[in-house]
Write a structure and sequence with these properties.
- The chain is mainly beta and about 140 residues long.
- It contains 1 helix and 9 strands; from the N terminus they run E-H-E-E-E-E-E-E-E-E.
- Strands 1, 2, 3, 4, 5 and 6 form a 6-stranded mixed sheet that branches. Strands 7-8-9 form a 3-stranded antiparallel sheet, with no helix packed on it.
């Protein structure tokens, strides 16, 4: 399952207003993503690219047990120049190169790539398996 929104739930860029909006979005949506086993969330708004580990309530979890969040905003007019904060869930950040997301899927997994344009250099690769049946057997624990 893939969910999309204009604004990201998770970003490590230093944009305070976006962290506030993201926090509200997490409170409204993250448990819903978890209970419905959303594999991937794609957003934009920021003019950059960032990907996370599989996340549940701010913590990295094993593949097949959480949602991977990807900001794909690097294909437009300009790239953001903000600094990135260090969060354990943030796995790859880019505000230097324009690019796009290439996704292929089958019944067992999604293969997600951030590809530069021009040049088609692959800078980030994510393999997202389907959710394991036991992944949502425990109670969702929100920490914010």
């Amino acid at each position: 399952i893939v969910a999309t929104s204009h604004r990201p739930l998770y970003t490590s860029q230093e944009q305070n207003g976006d962290h506030i909006v993201g926090r509200h979005m997490k409170m409204a949506l993250e448990e819903l993503f978890y209970s419905n086993k959303v594999n991937l969330h794609l957003s934009g708004h920021l003019h950059s690219y960032e990907s996370t580990c599989p996340v549940v309530a701010g913590d990295c979890v094993s593949p097949g047990h959480g949602t991977v969040y990807v900001i794909v905003g690097a294909a437009g007019k300009f790239l953001d120049s903000q600094y990135y904060n260090h969060y354990p869930w943030s796995k790859y950040q880019n505000c230097d190169k324009f690019g796009f997301e290439r996704i292929t899927a089958n019944s067992t997994h999604m293969h997600v790539e951030f590809v530069t344009a021009p040049g088609e250099e692959v800078l980030d690769v994510i393999t997202i398996p389907t959710w394991e049946e036991t992944a949502t057997d425990h109670v969702f624990k929100r920490r914010y």
